[in-house]
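To whoever picks this up:

The parser on our side crashed when reading a file containing two proteins. I've narrowed it down to the boundary between the first structure block and the second sequence. Both blocks are reproduced below exactly, byte for byte. First block:
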Amino acid sequence: MKRALIALVAGLALLAAWIWSVNFRGEDDIHDAPPPGPVAASVAQRGAYLARAGNCMLCHTERGGADYAGGRPIDTPFGTLYASNITPDPATGIGGWSVDHFWRALHHGRSRDGRLLYPAFPYTNYTQVTRADADALFGYLRTLKPVQRANTQHRLRWPYSTQAALAVWRALYFRPGIHADDAKHSADWNRGAYLVQGLGHCSACHTSRNALGASRDLLDLSGGMIPMQNWYAPSLASPAEAGVAGWEVEHITRLLQTGVAPGGTVLGPMAEVVLHSTQHLAPADLRAMAVYLKALPPPEGEPPAVAAAATNTDITERGARLYADHCLQCHGAQGQGVPGAYPPLAGSRAVVLSTTSNLVQVVLAGGYPPATAGNPRPFGMPPYATVFSDAEVAAVLTYIRASWGNRAAPVSELSVAQQRGG
């Protein structure tokens, strides 16, 4: 018994040492003093551009609040996190941080005081950011107007609220990384990989996650539900979802720059990304991202399309009547849409996607592409949450998914009710 107890204690000590080593090894010495003097204009300009590429302001700005002053809630399956104040206020922001503290936050996921940060701040991607870009980004943040706003306390359930649980999660799922160019690919591909994998943190949405909120591959782009939002971020590799291997590079670039392209229109969370981030990027960087995304290999062993289940005739007839009354004027009698205005429904990958959450969201809440410099007055779809019942939403979507050559499974009334209630 005594030997077993000693072995257990020794095993726990070794486990604790391993967790500590994984979380804290490999860090450079931290210089505590904030950098003196003003920030060079060229550095600030470069940092401002990188902040756009990372879409930093969107998360770190509460609706109606001061830019970058934090407070925006981020709902997760484990509770609510609140974005921090990253203005240069010395008391409540990052005014007392050194450039090394900031680098450690991006690269290692640790705050100024050494606390482990929650991966809702996507350091799992930002660890790929170069030191030079991290320093420029910090320089830009130093030029912002300081805003005195204390950070809002996170509201997480136990044990997710503990540093010990976070340390275990990191030991299992996070390792600091570094971006390295691949000599087998072009300069455009490598630049695109850096932006997509690092600052763009595309995998933060476009990946599936396990019960602990981790993905099997931090750079995976095979699609996944966005936690707590009832939106599905489709696979960027699969030709059946949002893969663009068959697109022209110019069309991919146009989608990232304007939100609309011959092959699709961005809605929901992606519309915010285009609005606040990608439309502001340099054409060369947009092209590089397009080159990288176009070259993504399709998933191995992707299952063939599932044949649509038989549809209840009464439901499809009801859906047809609803479509004629509410949808036909914009989307056409054959679901052909109107070029430059209303997207086609016939032959649309978004319509026949096996995950129907996005379709339900668009019907209930409306669908609005971003207003961009290249498409300043986009056509949108009004919400029908107060017009259609759950059964009517299911009927019209079932009709659309089974018409004009579309062959996809029906949408259930239950799935609509779950999303409306969520």
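<<boundary where parser fails>>
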Amino acid sequence: MDIEAQIAGYASAHEAEITKTLSELIAIPTVNPPGRSYWECVDYLSGLLQSWGVEHRMFSVPHESHPRYSILGSLGDGEDGLHFHGHYDVVSAQSPEQFQPRQQEGRLYGRGSSDMKGGIVAMLFALRAIQECGARLSKKITFALVPDEETGGRLGTHHLAEAGLLPRASFGMLMPEPTSGVIWSACRGALTLRVRINGRIAHVGLSRQGVNAFEGMVEVVRSLLALKRSVAARRTAFPISPRRANRSVMVLGGESGSGLNFNTVPQSAWFSVDRRINPEESLAQAKAELDQIFEKHRKRGINIEVETVQEGNPAVSSTRAPLGKILAQTARDVTGTKPRFELCPGVLETRFFINQGIPAYGYGPGLLETSHGPHEYVDLSAVLHCTAVYALTAVRLIA
């Protein structure tokens, strides 16, 4: 049996082990925010890699309550050829039962099963398949397991990039996000702000002595709503699913708050602005449009503070790069269907690589439509397919 046939059959032959590993990973509640159970998760993953004899090391970033941990590792020798990248943090669950994984009709249910612990397990077992089947690589496969993707990656991938620790893989990077069967070759940019309006507190009976921060916030938001209508009229020409998701995005008030009590003039009011930027736009343009509104209201006497939570330009990889072409062909060989290249409707950590000139793509076993929801699940057959796709793509690219 040739090496590709061995690798193609590896995941199916190890389905029980793959399912067990994914179940155990889902049961670790790596909720972000605030960043719970991070150490428990990286300790589990490190133990798995150590048992396989896969070279890796851990990096920690201090945090006031929940330290952050990343794992960097590699398989093979030579220069960096291909990079696998995954995040182990998950969003909050709708119920504690979501951290009690259950298997039903070929699906594994649980928080993070789709986004993206199913993808991490596929990625890691792809390395194991290459290792156990004895594939010879001309270049090294590097990998990273990071926290905080769900909150912008500041203490995860962004920190590794700033520290110069991300590998410059010559062929590119793969990330097993829940792509619903397509390949994400592009992603939107992001600009997330926390806007605070400052006023002056006063007793309700002496309200004229106060400055109502809530009312100031309403004025600012009214201007932002006008901008939002303009933003929503913009369309991307990139393929995207569903097609109605082609509008540029601005969400106001995902987080918000005001005041201390009903009988006092609120001295503070705040809200979030989350701007997702199509590839035809730019981060600089998005910033300028928002800054213009804030400055207009400052001149009218409203005290506005703006904190940047995350920011990043849109990022696009060529669909004709060797990694993109081999990934698409391999996915077709494994699943029987050639995937389309599309724009991710959100933002991806592929941007940290693309902006350094490294081709980067999202392709994973999960479904975007179930991710973050109360009934999140991943098809186990999709996890097995993704394992084979990652392993065969690597071997075809750098063997």
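After patching the parser it read the second block fine. The chain has a mean pLDDT of 97. The first strand starts at residue 55 and ends at 61.
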